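BACKBONE GEOMETRY TOKENS
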Amino acid sequence: MEVTLPVVGMTCHSCVNAVTGALEDIQGVTSVHVDLTGGKASFAADRADFDVDVAIRAIEDVGFDVPEEYRQATVRLPVVGMTCQSCVQSITGAIVDVDGVEELKVSLEKNEAEVRLKLLRTNVQVKDAIDIRGFQVLDQSPQISDMITITIDVIGMTCHSCVNSITSALQAHPGVSDVHVSLEKETAKVTYDASKTNPRVICTAIEDCGFDTVYVYDDQGDVQASTPIATMTLTPAADIKSHDDQATTATLKVTGMTCASCVASIERALKKRPEIVSVNVNLLAEMATIRYIEEPSGILDGIIQQIEDIGFHAEKQDADGQDKAQLKIFGMTCASCVNSIERGVKQVAGIKSINVNLMTESAYVEFDSSIVGLRDIVEQISDLGFDALVSDNSANAQIESLSKVKEIKEWKAAFIQSLLFTVPLFFLAMVLPMTNLGMEMMHLETPIKGLYWTDLAQIILCVPVQFGVGKRFFVAGYKSLRHGSPTMDVLVMISTSSAFFFSAFAILYSVVSSQHQKPTVFFETSAMLIMFVTLGRYLENLAKGQTSVALSKLMSLAPSSATLLIVDEETGNVIGDRSIPTELVKVGDLLRLLPGDKIPADGVVVSGSSTVDESMITGEAVQVSKTKDSRVIGGTVNGLGSITFRATQVGSDTALAKIVKLVEDAQVSKAPIQGFADVIAGYFVPAVIGLGCITFVIWTIVFHVLSAKNKALLPDIFQPDGEDWFFVCLKLCISVIVVACPCALGLSTPTAVMVGTGVGAENGILIKGGGPLEAGHKVGKVVFDKTGTLTRGVMDVHKVCVWPETEGLFTSNQLLLLAGAAESRSEHPVGRAISRQSLAVSSLQTTEEYATVTDFASITGKGIDCHVAIHNKSVWQGSGQKYNVLVGNAAYVVKDRRIAINRNQQLAMEEEQVLGHTCVLVAVDESLVGYIALADTVKPEARVVVETLARMGIPSVMVTGDQEATARNIANQVGISEVHAGVSPNGKTILVKSMQETQQLAVEQTSKYPIYRRYIRRRTLRPYVAMVGDGINDSPALAASNFGIALRSGTDIAMEAADVVLMRDDLCDVVAAIDLSRTIFRRIKINLFWSCIYNVTGIPLAMGLFIPWGYHIHPMMAGMAMAASSVSVVLSSLALKGWRKPDCTGIETQAGGGRWWKHIFTRHPYQPVASDEMSVVREAPGEDLELGQISL
């Protein structure tokens, strides 16, 4: 039976909750729906003879009226037995005769009678009248398949204001018949008509209120479905491109690249292929990410072959390493062993393929990790009689690749080899002629006329360097020239070959000519160029290896083994333990940690207590206490205690693996500014070769013109008789080719990105690549979510109020101590918050130190009742008394326990509830003493962060789905003036986009200013908007913003959508992330500036433009300069390792005091401003173009 009653006096959602609770407590009531706007309460009863008067008294008991003149009940009675319209008429005639029936509607289709009754208990007479006519009225409505009850996990509720918001939103939703939201359980129980709505729409309605939904359970408690928003993939708008849906992505390892020209040549060659969609080649990571159309098959093999034809080595990287493994197998003796292993492993469910190699004693296995684990495969091989170990060479190889171990060894060997031959060659060519004895030795001829001993010695010493060490330059240079994509190797090849072959030609000419004059040779130039290039590459790779130290450290954090506890399946007791490789740990394994152990997987502590050093993950050097139910992170280090934990994420699903993957992806991505360097690199080598040829031709012409007029006009670089003019011009040409270096230009951006992202990871700031880095330095406004971002997201005591009538009996502290002692045994979030605050007030560790609690009783969802005896005189004068303490909601204290509350007290509580605070009443010895208001508190660093951002010229905005009053209250506490309340997730996205348009418009408006003012104005205006959030409902806005920042304490979806993930739940890292992106981008610009300046000044100097003033560059010095340029750029990027987080704390201590030199040498880049300065700081340029607050 369904009943609807008018209710007078409801003014807010607290009233709705009171009426709802009163009706739900009535035995026989199955569901309740209270309509605040319509002023009525509807409920369903499980009996047709339900006493409506009981419901009316319940409503009146909580302070509301059901007027006598309007006491009508609309009753729906399910009727069984109707078959035709005659039945309908018969029932209608029977009911009409009953007194009190005002309206009647009998439905044959629905098998029900809907009756509006004026008098109470008339429903019983109606039921009897229908029964007399031969029909049956069911006590309970028949099961209707369309009515479904689900329970939804709701994340983000902190107070009753949140409960009211969700309840109101769902009650207004068509098709929803019943809603019950539990703050304690963080759930929403919803009954709905499946023909009118569905769980997806219901979850969306909850998320529109600003909360996150995770799982939907049916009324049996089984998981019915994940909510759609939790499973969708959010892609930032900047990453959405028009592309063919059939494109395949492949990752290739490309070795042999040395400069930006190498990158440009690979990208240019591959982009010519029609099946290629996009190509991204990273110089430092030696990775190429290629999207292509796999039609016809074998395209990837052709791509790899083309890269190798250009002069580089390429091989395919496994895209999904978690379902593939390489095992080392011991004990095989013949082919029969191989067949036995392959046949036995293939019988295991989930095995896709296995390939065993007898010679290498290894096996390569592909498997479905959702069906079978790696440990199952190893155990299966062991059961077959062989020993198997996981061969984890891939991680070691990757660490070595990042550290440039192979390249460092190769270039070091090449440098030493060239050094051994070049030093004596340099002595013969440059030092020996400086002495008289040396000059005589220089002119000693061999038996062959025209061939001198010193020249012969030089060519013998030069050949191993030119064609031994220099072979790699010739091979790579030849391949790149063959494909029309010259690289740095071509420049080395041309310059060294010119010096060597022209010297060799000079010797040959001297031998075959009739004059047999001693030839002019410069073999030392060729050898020393190669020596300096190899030295430069050696130093460059040493420096490059340092750029990825942070990532290498992260990859090496995982321990090699874990201690697995063996559990008896029948008793559940631990019967032993054994050590296993970390790769074999499975979800659900029980693992033991001894003092000093590295944690092998993510999990939850089952027993024991300890402290854990999580600094390598969070960047915060603080020992974190771990007790039962605490979460532990793989790769962190256990302290002095011993704990047992259950693995929840293993392998590539651990937090450490995800961090490593994120940092890897960031370091191989390109910053947009790198496109500038790539464009220049594409034309650099041909242009340099052209300039070298022009230099040779021009100086040849200059020499002949001036020689014809007056040899005295020739520069000193030319000999007086001019016989060696050819070699002078050739040296100038070689100097031009050698001094020009595209390497410095190509390394400017990727080295800074790699070092910067690594430094960020070490400090708990994960930046997803070069794009976000570049966007971060342009941020001109930061939008903060409220719940969980600016606030802690947990309940804290906000106010303790003692009624004026009882102020003489108890103080506010005493009231808190009593309530805290009473709540010390409670598991409710509100109770824990009160107990925690009472201990803070008393400065004690436990409640037992000042009070004894007896006769404790907890009434679920209502409150507690107990006796409290105070025995500590230091916290309570006159201790020793015993009090009966009640703590609970109004329904429990006032209604159930019948403790009186006056109107003023009721209004005081309602004022708190309007601000979103949760209020609990405290009664002592059956008398109401006061109330405790709890609220979601602001994070302690929030105000300092807002003020620091303001000092940086970045105004802050708060956006929330909460009500206006609560939002304004939080905003005032943190110092934010621009507030947008009641905004849905979609509204947040719209808000962010409108701010982006406004910021961009402000920048565009500067075009009307003169150039110098435009430049100054644009330096202060930044067009990008950053969004800081932690929940699923923030994900669309995070993706839409230019610089999305997610807190790791939030949801995985938020972290996926964001550009930056902060590993600590500390808002100071928001400032640090923006500062780091500014620092990195500033370093990129410095690198690009100096690499450009180097070439702009070095090439003209090498071309001989300053020869009239006596300045030019010898080819050997040009080689040294070329090597130094690359090394200097990498060292410049390594300077980022000195970055430290800006200090956002200690406003007073930073502002003044202390010695003057401390202010010079201590890094405080962004001093927070005082509160009274905020209004001045917020008047940023372009503020007049801001849109007004958006009402969504």
Remarks:
- DSSP finds 41 helices and 42 strands in the chain.
